[in-house]
Amino acid sequence: MKVFYSEKTNGFYPDFLLGQYNNSETLPLDILELTQxxxxxxxxxxxxxxxxxxxxxxxxxxxxxxxxKIISEIKKEMEGVVQAxxxxxxxxxxxxxxxxxxxxxxxxxxxxxxxTSLSIxxxxxxxxxxxxxxxxxxxxxxTPTTDELIAELPAY
Length: 156
Prior knowledge:
Mean pLDDT: 94
Helix content: 40-55%
């Protein structure tokens, strides 16, 4: 069986389906016949870590670097990491999440001091995280990994 590849769709097309694709006018015009080695290397295979299926300069399938993330994706991921870090600390102290401390921030409550301390720490964590994100947005630093980000945040 012959297999074809389209750079435009980043898809594989077995020869026995070409007629159906052509009849439905969905067959890309840029298909290239693959070698058996290319079929075995790419079709239905998981990419190596840190790579995605794409194409080389000649339009043939290749493992390539993923496109850079846009800042909104980076921001969302970093915010998720920071929130999980904060919530994990709150949970280690018996709270459901950091949001649960609000009801304890009342003078006279037996958990007032602990919840106040946790609230102040939370603010310092977000201050640090916002500084790091601002540096990433400005291009003055690379995006930290999850472990690097957590290591830079204040400990409780």
